[in-house]
Amino acid sequence: MNGGMQRCFNILNQLALHFDLTAIIHQNKEDFLKSVKHHPAIGAAKIYSTKNNVAKDFLTLMPTKLENALRSRWYQRIWNTPADGSLIKYYPTLICLLKNQKFDIIILENLATLNAVRIIRRFDKTVKIVYDAHNVDSKLAKAALKRNEISNLEFESVLSRESNLERMVDGVITCSEIDKNTLQTINSRKLFVEEIANGITIPETRFDAGVKCSEPECILFCGTLCSIPNAEGLDWFSRRIWPLILRQFPNLKLLIIGAGELPERYLDIKETTNIEFAGTIPDVKKWYNRATVAVVPLLTGSGTRLKILEAMALGVPVVSTRIGAEGIHYSNEIDLLLADEEKEFAENVLKLLMNKKLRFEIADSARELATRFYDWNIIGNRMKDVLTLLISNEKLTNVYETH
Q1: Domain interval for residue 348
Q2: Distance CA 189, CA 103 (A)
Q3: First-to-last CA distance in the chain?
Q4: Which of 3, 23, 48, 51 is the 20 to 30 A CA-CA neighbour of 271?
Q5: CATH code of the domain containing 297
C-alpha cells in the first residue's frame, strides 16, 4: 500500500531468511500471512496478532478513555506520558514472549514503539534493542510546524524522543546516510547508527512500453496521497511545472497512482488539466508501463523514496528533486535527472520526453544501479551483518560497499 509497508514486509522476509524470527503485528494474522505468496520466508516466522488481546482487570470497570489512559501509564510505569493505544494492544503478547523466551535482538518499528523499551528492560536487561527509523520524525515534525499543522510543544516532544535515543536503545537503523548523520548529531555522536537502505525486487523484464513510445502519452507520479510531502509536492508540480510541460505536449497526461485521499487544502489538484487519478491499484507495473517518465517532485521528507527505486527497476527514467532522491547513491544526469527549481524541473521532463535515446540511457543506468545495490537480497545481507555484529558487540567496519 505504501513505502513503509513495503519496507516492513521485505525486511521481515529478509530477517526470516537469516534469523529465527518472531513478529507481533496488529493485522489479522490470516490476512497478514497472505504476504507469504510474495515473501515466502515469512511463512517460517512465528507471528502473533494483537487482534484478540483484551485486558481484563479492575481497570475495565472504568470509562474507556480513563481505562486506556491509566492502563498505558501503568504498563510503562510513567504517569506523565500520553496514552498509547497501540501499546495497550501488544502489551499482553510482548510480556508473555519476554517471560517465556530469550531474544538476541528486539526491533521497534516506529517512534511510538519506544514506549516498549521500559517494559522490555524490566524483563530482559541484556537484549539488544534496535529502532528502525523509517524517517527522521523530528525533520518531518519541523516541516509540519512551519505549516502550522502541529504545535511547538508537539514538535519538541518528537525532537526530545529522537535526541534521547542513545539512552534508550542499543542501535538505530536508518534508510539513508543523511538520516544516519542527523540522528547521530542530535544524539551527540553517542548513538550506534547504521544505514539499511530501502530495496526493491528487480523484475526479470522491464515495464517500459511508454519509454519506447515515439509520441509520449503519459508521465507518472506514484505515492500515498494522504501523505503531506506527497500532496505538497504534487501541488507544486501541478501549479508551477505541469503548465510548462503542457505548452510543449498539450495532450500529455499525468497519471497519479496511490492509496488515500488528498488533504482538503490540496483538493484543487483534481481540477488540473490532463491529470488522471487512478487511486489504489493492485499492481503498479501496468501503470509504469504506460509512462514515459516518472516524476518525484518532493519538497519535504525523510528516509528513502521507494517510488524512485521502483521506477528504476521497472525501466522508467526519473526526474526528481534532491530531497526526493535523498538516500539513493545516484549520479545526476546518469541514473536520473535532478531539479529543485520549477523551470529546470520542467526542462528535465521535456528533455526526456523529446529524446528517446536519453530516456534509454538513463533507464539502463538506473536499472543497473538498482540491481547492483538495492535488490532486497543485498539489503538483507547488509541487515544480517549489522545485527550480527551488534549482537557480538563488535564495531561495524567496512561491511557495506557504497556507490
Answers
A1: 209-373
A2: 27
A3: 29
A4: 3
A5: 3.40.50.2000
Q: How many whole angstroms separate alpha carbon 125 and alpha carbon 277?
A: 51
**Contact of 128 with 106, CB cutoff 8 Å:** yes
> Smallest Cα–Cα separation from 11: which of 227, 201, 181, 178?
201
Other residues' Cβ atoms within 10 Å of the Cβ of residue 98: 19
Residues 230 and 257 placed together within one structural domain of the fold: yes
> Positive or negative, the Cα torsion across 166, 169, 170, 176?
negative
Tens digits of per-residue pLDDT, 126-135?
999 999 998 8
> Residue 39 and residue 52: Cα distance in Å, rounded?
25
Amino acid at position 34, single letter: K
Identity (one letter) of the amino acid at 283?
A: D
Average pLDDT over residues 345-374: 97
Whether 155 is covered by a domain: the verdict is: yes
Note whether 277 and 270 are within 8 A (CB). yes
How far apart, in whole angstroms, are the C-alpha atoms of residue 184 and residue 191? 6
Instruction: Say what the pLDDT of residue 55 is.
Output: 61
SS3 48: strand
Q: Which residues contact 10 (CB under 8 A, 6 or more apart)?
A: 39, 199, 201, 376, 379
Which tens digit of pLDDT belongs to each residue from 51-64?
A: 876 665 545 545 56
Spacing of C-alpha 306 from chain mean position: 7
Q: Are 303 and 232 in contact (CB under 8 A)?
A: no
CA–CA separation, 393 and 175 (whole Å): 22
Which amino acid makes up residue 290? R
Number of domains in the chain: 2
Q: Which residue has the cell 496514552?
A: 83
Rg over CA atoms, the chain: 22
Query: Which grid coordinates belong to 232?
Result: 505538497
Which single residue is written with the C-alpha cell 488522471? 276
Q: What residue type is 27 in one-letter code?
A: Q
Let me know if residue 397 belongs to a domain. no
Nearest Cα to 263, choosing from 221, 232, 300, 295? 232
Distance CA 393, CA 153 (A): 37
Tell me the sheet residues that pair with 106. Answer: 129
pTM for this model (two decimals): 0.84
